[in-house]
Amino acid sequence: MPNSSFTPKTAVAIEGENFLINGVPTHEGRSFRGNSIEGLMLNSRMANAMWDDENEFTRHLWAYAENDRWRADRNTDELIDMLPIYQSKGLDCIDINLQGASPLGYYRSDEEGLADLRQRIHAVHPDATDEQIWEGVPNVESQPWISGAFTASGELKPAFMDRTARIIEAADNLGMVLCLGYFYFGQDERLADENAVKAAVDNATRWVLNQGYTNVLIEINNEADVPRYEHEILCPPRVHELIERAAAIEVDGKRLLISTSFTRRMVPTDAVIAASDYILLHGNGMHDTPQLTKRVIDTRASESFRGQPIFFNEDDHFDFENGDNNFAAALEQRAGWGYFDPGPGAGGAAAYGDYEVGYQNPPINWTINTQRKESFFWFLSEVTGK
After folding, report:
1. Across the beta sheet with 279-281, what order do the strands follow?
2. pLDDT band for position 106 (50/70/90)?
């Protein structure tokens, strides 16, 4: 049954190629550099907003320096405190994920990366074996931390969902949208099998609907085309099955708007485009704006495309002071754009968090405290007129 204690203030909808919030197109009547931005979804990837780590051997890696431990509730509360500031700059949406994202930027399980990780773990747990550190995953190629909201059978973890609820409700109160991802390729192997993946989709989708949330978009998985997913149903040939599955779930005649994201590697499949309510692209690795422009054009050229709205919900390219940047190029193609700041990991490197740079690697400083963050929010304000 729906949550009778929550009364939503914010409802996201789609009309043609436009996103609407409470029946009004986003950025209604606004243009930037001669291009209409009405109906576009301007967003920022903050996937680890409710992140935690249940692995006793890696949890210390994310400690806040002043108290020498990691606190998941502090991380979430500090993000929530910043939402009014983000919204005041014109941000429509933040992107979060129930399995989080890599806490080490572009984590690499190569020889050098593993040696560094082991050294940091053994500094606190000198007798820990690889079998203990990587328990529950196939091998040391996998991410050892345990950061997801799902049990092995696909049930929801209450503490994780409580943090998720607090973020969604805070955003709802501000008129903001949440793009809620379910799966991440660093953590999907924590689910026992395909039935567990399906159960996770069912449970998470029903949870959002039963809570009465109307400001939530769903992203089935982050970058379906990354060749590290363990479950075939999360990969390009079959992920549309999960989009269709989630879209078929209704509570009181209401359903959610569903999609999934792809990297620069490929245009979303025709089956994914056909099943999706909106299209999610990523700009990472697109080092010049013509690549990004072509990706939007090629997506719209799909035989399955029917005029859905498009937005990038991850791109680690900046240069906002330069007129030719990925954000501006996306707007020229009437596609929304999403800021992704992994700190020094931008461009493809691994990086540990330092409670200063970026919005990815815990411990995360969610304030606008670096030149890169300031530059993004300055440009966002220029775009939106806020």
Report:
1. 261-262, 279-281, 310-312
2. confident
> What does pLDDT average to over the chain?
96
Percentages of the chain per state (helix, strand, coil), in multiples of 5: 35, 15, 50
251-271 pLDDT tens trace: 999 999 999 999 999 999 999
Instruction: Locate 354 and state its tokens.
Output: 């330092």
Task: Decide: helix, strand or coil at residue 91.
Answer: coil
Nearest by Cα to 112 from 343, 363, 354, 350: 350
CA angle 240/225/216 to nearest 5° reads 55
- Whether cis (ω within 30° of 0) applies to the bond prior to 363 is yes
Buried b / exposed e across 236-251, counting CB within 10 Å, b at 16+? bebbbbbbebbbebeb
Instruction: State both tokens at 249.
Output: 């779930």
Residue pair 383/327 in contact (Cβ under 8 Å)? The answer is: yes
Judged by phi (left if over 0) then psi (alpha if -120 to 50, else beta), residue 239 lies in alpha
Structural contact between residues 374 and 57, judged by C-beta atoms closer than 8 angstroms: no
CATH number of 12-384: 3.20.20.80
Q: Give me the amino acid identity at 278.
A: Y
For residue 357, give the nearest of 375, 345, 347 by alpha carbon.
345
Give the separation between CA 49 and CA 53, rounded to whole angstroms. 13
Whether this prediction's pTM lies above 0.85 is answered by yes
Integer Cα distance of 223 and 219 in angstroms: 10
